[in-house]
Amino acid sequence: MQDxxxxxxxxxxxxxxxxxxxxxxxxxxxxxTLYGVTVRSTVPHARIRKIHFAPDLPLDEFTIVSADDxxxxxxxxxxxxxxxxxxxxxxxxxxxxILLIAHPDRYLAERARQSVCIEYDPLxxxxxxxxxxxxxxxxxxxxxxxxxxxxxxxxxxxxTYTTGAQEQLYIEPQSIDAAFLNNxxxxxxxxxxxxxIQKALDRVFPFPSRVIQMETGxxxxxxxDYPSILAIHAGLLSWKSGKPVKMIYSRGEDMAATTxxxxxxxxxxxxxxxxxxxxxxxxxxxxxxxxxxxxxxxVLSRAAIHATGCYFCPDIQIEARAVATNHPPHGAFxxxxxxxxxxxxxxxxxxxxxxxxxxxxxxxxxxxxxxGQRTATGQVLHESVPLQELLDxxxxxxxxxxxxxxxxxxxxxxxxxxxxxxxxxQSVACLERTAEGKIRVLVSSxxxxxxxxxxxxxxxxxxxxxxLDDIEIVQPDTSIVPDSGPTVASRTxxxxxxxxxxxARQLKSPGVNKASAKYVxxxxxxxxxxxxxxxxxxxxxxxxxxxxxxIDQSTGQTKLKDFVAVQDAGKIINPTLAAGQIExxxxxxxxxxxxxxxxxxxxxxxxxxxxxxxxxxxADLPPIxxxxxxxxxxxxxxxxxxxxxxxAPAIANALSRQLGTNFNHLPIxxxxxxxxxxxx
Amino acid sequence: MRQIPVxxxxxxxxxxxxxxxxxLDLLRRNLGLxxxxxxxxxxxxxxCAILFNGQLVNSCLIPAAQSAGSTIVTIExxxxxxxxxxxxxxxxxxxxxxxxxMILASHVLLESNENPSELEIREALAGNxxxxxxxxxxxxxxxxxxx
Lengths: 680, 147
Known about the structure:
The complex is a heterodimer. Chain A is of the alpha+beta class. Chain A has three domains: 14-23 and 427-518, Aldehyde oxidase/xanthine dehydrogenase, molybdopterin binding domain (Aldehyde Oxidoreductase, domain 4, 2-Layer Sandwich); 32-124 and 168-257, Aldehyde Oxidoreductase, domain 3, CATH 3.90.1170.50; 264-419 and 533-675, Aldehyde Oxidoreductase, domain 4 (2-Layer Sandwich), CATH 3.30.365.10. Helix content of chain A is 26%, strand content 24%. Chain A contains 16 helices and 27 strands. In chain A, the strands form seven sheets. Chain A has a seven-stranded mixed β-sheet with strand order 3-5-1-12-9-10-11, sandwiched between helices. In chain A, strands 7-15-14-13-8 form a five-stranded mixed β-sheet. In chain A, strands 16-23-24-27 form a four-stranded mixed β-sheet, with helices on both faces. The longest helix of chain A is centred in the C-terminal third of the chain and has 20 residues, at 575-594. Chain B folds into two domains: 2-77, Beta-grasp domain (Ubiquitin-like (UB roll)); 81-146, [2Fe-2S]-binding domain (DNA polymerase, domain 1). By secondary structure, chain B is an alpha+beta fold. Chain B has a five-stranded mixed β-sheet with strand order 2-1-5-3-4, sandwiched between helices. Chain B starts with a strand and ends with a helix. Chain B has helices at residues 23-30, 81-90, 99-112, 118-124, 136-146; strands spanning 2-8, 11-17, 49-52, 55-58, 71-73. Classes of the chains: A alpha+beta, B alpha+beta. At the A-B interface, helix 1 and helix 14 of A face helix 2, helix 3, helix 4 and helix 5 of B.
């Protein structure tokens, strides 16, 4: 039957998507709507001296909101309370929001925006994270006695690896509609986390609000926290004007102003024996957080915990910090700090192998984590660790032994929130039986392309032995659905899926028409946030990737010929959707490896267009071949972010091998290939 | 303002518009055909692709004045249930925002080439950006629709 777990039920909203009937935020009919625009800082760090409006602007026709208008605290609720909704006296990055303007005519709103002139008193700006004097968070992980191990080590190998800012580039830009009516603010929008927005609105507005997710055209982390500030902005304009307000970012504004993947500098110093066994590791991680903390503290902790990746090492010292600069804030993007540290680590493994004249397969086999061993945080891996099998399969599928110049990388990804995060979230999921005998699923988990609606329906249908058509997913609306946590961190299938299965079991009892389930932490799992020791994640997913490529020596172009991605993400609920997640993640990883880099000039995004920030097209990508091992396991694990972690180092390793050099900085553009030093 | 006569999905319309308004906006706002999406507004992403006198074009780049007298097909009017079904069956649509443009581009390819190779499919779709799928399942959908 097509509705059960393990079968490729078609995406539930696919028919409306392929016919153009799906309603995204900008598609909803609007009546007497104002169009909202944002006046932003043009300088990276300055005091605001004076704001001028053009003398010919009929100010009374426009709704204008400044920091002085806020009905509550001028703060975007997040981990730290450091980001204002609107800058009042000082700006800390280019594109920081200063004023909001709305008008019934979108062209006039835009003209008004362009006519505002702001005088600044410039302040010194910091763009190099190494020169920053303010850390949003530091995070140290210690295991064993690395100093002693280094003193006795036969070989010590060092390397520095850097990655740039990467843009999520969801195809639907950030979009929010707001309506303030009867003392209630309603927000409709493109988003991942309705309750994050709810929390942010509740902090600013002294009246009730409600958040409704519309069909969402991609997120990849970019719609995790950014929609909160945009919803506040649209809400402010609607509250002040008394009219519905629409705020749809242009692509240029979206690329220039919204959060991106943190640029990272990762340094490795590793003690190894003659066989390439890891004896001790020191890892130093520096993330450029941008001007405000947003999600940097939790991106950093995930990065630090994943810094030693799939490898066992007895003695480890990891020092990580996310610092403030005057760049626009960096934030969540699929992988959440792991793509940066895994690029560093997997490149470093190849560097170690080359310097000891060991091949890349052997060095990995000798050091892969095994069941029962302890990770950097001291977490004992109780479950099976299938890295050897994943590597075997990847070697087989890629015909590795009969070819040369292929690149390998492994990765792991912890599913769910880091450390005690899931305990704090206390997620809830509900089910209701309707009068017609259908089952309504009430969760705040959002569908933005990953397949949430379909897999959650399958889990419920499977438990209740009902056809999929009898399961109805309620549109996420904070006035209706409980808080089942944000749709992030590869947590939905595992955490929310388990809650729904639990609720479905309750619904099987006679006379029960409503059921809810609340997250209960698994037994024997504990993490100490102060010392960064213990069980960082309830479970890990694992992957091995192999890239095969050709280099055009005259143009420096890399042509990928084949890409093999083998993973263990536990039970696979829907094989087609799961493979789609891996293929899409690999494609973003290929972009990260070869072409994508947000370029800053004095704190301003220089390439804020799809014409000069290029992502892989159909013509750039190879066939991406996906294989799941242990897909009939008893539990689903996270898989959304896993495929983002290994493609870039696999490609960098292939290029480095083929050209006899070390590509330790991403992206590896044709220019870098033409200029590379092949003297290694 | 000018009266712009256009035939959209088989129906004749007289649309009142400024000459330099974008055809994309006429379709979405004046005619309510919101299946045509705006991803970049500068002809890079292909989310706003339509059939314009039988040719695949980005409607964000066509001024209203130039569309006078044209025959337009949008995703809502595209009669190619086999191709749409193939996108459903293979998982070729994820977030769905690029899907209307992607299906129109695939349709144009299959109209001119009944049996395209993988390379020909990849080249034909290179003007339509998808950030979700990595294109593997989109290419499968086009292959499936041609059989």
